[in-house]
Structure formats: C-alpha cells, structure tokens
Amino acid sequence: MADRDRALVALRRVVARLTASARSVESRTGITNAQLYCLRVLARSPRPLTIGELADATRTGQSAASLLVQRLERSGLVRRERDAVDARRRVVRLLARGRQLAARAPAPPTDEVLTALARLSRRDLRGLAQGLDRLATALGGSDHEPPMLFEPERR
C-alpha cells in the first residue's frame, strides 16, 4: 500500500475512533467532549482556575475557554466567582453536579488523544506534529485558533 493510501486509512481510523468516542460522551452525559474535558481539568485541579489558567490547561485560547465555561455555567456544572485570595480575579469553581459528572463520564476523546500521544516516542511525536501541520496547511487550515475537538467553529 502506498504511503498516501496508508495515511488516508490511518486518518480514517483516527477520525472514526474519535467520532465514536465523542458521540458516546455526548449521549451518556448530555455535554460535549470539550465541556467534559474542561470539567475533568477542573476536577484534577487542587483549586479553582481562572479562565486563562483553564485555557492553558486545555491547550486552547481564552475566548474558547470562556465560551465553554458559559455553557457549563448555564448547565449548573460550574460557577464563576471572585477569587478568595485576590478579589480582582474571577475563578471557575466546579460544582458538586459537575464533579459527579466528570467522575462518572467516559473519557473524552481529548483525553484519549493526549494519552495516546504520550505513548509515542519524541521522534514519532515530532514527525506526527510536523506532518499534521503540513496537512492542515495543504488543506487550507488557517492560523487562527481552532475549536476544541468536536466543538463547532466560532464565527
């Protein structure tokens, strides 16, 4: 099989696996992969996080993190509040319902991808990153901040 064909088949396998995982997350939890990933990040943190800290931890931008927090807040899973130490800062606090959901939910596709990437050698990971960057560019992918996995593009 030619390298191009192998790459296409591998990409199909990855997309199919992640799509199935994302659908499972959404049907079992009622929230998106990105929302669950944010809940899990908050649950692992020993303290509430600012939007900027959440964005860093989820490897996304502040605007994307802020939108996710708004949706999670509307669902009663998190609450934004003033920081107890520095009242000028606002933090995102995981509520009991959000903590329970994060604990019982299946692993979101983002966690699965990060776990799989951690198993790759540095050389393979570097090659994959370079190849995916080139593929995204060849497909016309822009340099603006992409949405998190399985989140709609912000307009």
Mean pLDDT over all positions: 89
**Ranges with pLDDT <50 over ≥5 residues?**
none
For the largest beta-sheet, the strand count, sense and barrel status come to: 2 strands, antiparallel
- Structural class, judged by helices and strands? mainly alpha
Coarse shape: globular
> Radius of gyration in whole Å, from Cα?
17 Å
Q: Number of DSSP strands?
A: 2
* SSE pattern, N- to C-terminal: HHHHEEHHH
Strand order of the largest sheet: 1-2
Individual helix count: 7
Provide the helix percentage: 55-70%
**End-to-end distance:** 40 Å
Strand content: 5-15%
Structure description:
The protein has a two-stranded antiparallel ribbon. It contains 7 helices and 2 strands. It has helices at 3-29, 33-44, 51-57, 62-74, 96-104, 109-118, 122-138, and strands at residues 78-82, 90-94. Helix 2 (33-44) packs across helix 4 and helix 3 (51-57) packs across helix 4. The protein is 61% helix and 6% strand. With 155 residues, it is mainly alpha-helical.
